């Protein structure tokens, strides 16, 4: 009888400090601010006759690497209907929102493939970049992956890949 397990990873290093603003409409956004985000990942799959799903080490390192890449940056949404981004000759950014023009140095910015910089979009982008083409999931016989991104204690959004159970 096949037995599945879920391994949950929520290590101290699975965190990043970053700035953003949420856009609520074509005319309403938050002021720039930041959070100490944390990430939780749960991987589910069948336990082999050797008593393990797979070595979760590589996936854990991928999560920590992504958290480090997202630490001390300012997120801008690259797919917002309400915010237009332009890069100047120096590679720096101008963001246009509701008649405002915001300027950012390239070194300070991470443009996300997201419609908004929200918990739900951060969880999705994080998860999609972990899953990639699915090869690591197949290698590790992972059938379901859940990513939670929290903006602080008690507040998070989730993203899921694969089939539960
Ligand atoms: N659906 C969503 N709604 C909102 C999001 C989001 O990501 N998805 N985010 C925000 C703001 O970014 C805001 O900063 C987060 O809300 P807030 O509760 O103010 O954040 P704090 O971490 O400061 O929590 P406190 O309760 O104020 O301590 C709003 N809406």
From TrEMBL:
Q: Any idea which UniProt keywords this protein has?
A: Lyase, Metal-binding, Zinc
Cofactor list: Zn(2+)
Q: Which GO terms describe its molecular function?
A: 6-carboxytetrahydropterin synthase activity; metal ion binding
Q: Which organism is it from?
A: Corallococcus terminator
Q: In which pathway does it act?
A: Purine metabolism; 7-cyano-7-deazaguanine biosynthesis
Stored Pfam families: PTPS
- Keyword Lyase in record: yes
Its name, as the record gives it, is 6-carboxy-5,6,7,8-tetrahydropterin synthase
The text of the family note is: Belongs to the PTPS family. QueD subfamily.
Give the InterPro entries listed for this entry.
Answer: 6-PTP_synth/QueD, 6-PTP_synth/QueD_sf
Catalysis: reaction(s): 7,8-dihydroneopterin 3'-triphosphate + H2O = 6-carboxy-5,6,7,8-tetrahydropterin + triphosphate + acetaldehyde + 2 H(+)
Lyase keyword on record: yes
Q: Which SUPFAM superfamilies match?
A: Tetrahydrobiopterin biosynthesis enzymes-like
> What EC numbers are recorded for this enzyme?
4.1.2.50
């Amino acid at each position: 009888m096949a037995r599945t397990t879920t391994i949950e990873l929520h290590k101290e290093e699975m965190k990043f400090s970053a700035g953003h603003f949420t856009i609520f409409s074509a005319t309403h956004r938050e002021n720039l601010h930041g959070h100490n985000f944390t990430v939780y990942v749960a991987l589910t799959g069948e336990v082999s006759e050797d008593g393990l799903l797979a070595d979760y080490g590589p996936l854990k390192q991928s999560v920590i690497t992504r958290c480090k890449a997202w630490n001390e940056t300012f997120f801008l949404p690259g797919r917002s209907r309400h915010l237009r981004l332009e890069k100047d000759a120096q590679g720096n950014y101008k963001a246009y929102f509701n008649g405002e023009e915001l300027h950012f140095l390239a070194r300070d910015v991470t443009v996300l493939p997201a419609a908004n910089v929200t918990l739900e979009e951060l969880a999705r982008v994080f998860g999609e970049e972990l899953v990639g083409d699915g090869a690591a999931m197949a290698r590790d016989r992972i059938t379901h992956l859940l990513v939670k991104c929290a903006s602080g204690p008690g507040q998070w959004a989730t993203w899921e890949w694969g089939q539960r159970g």
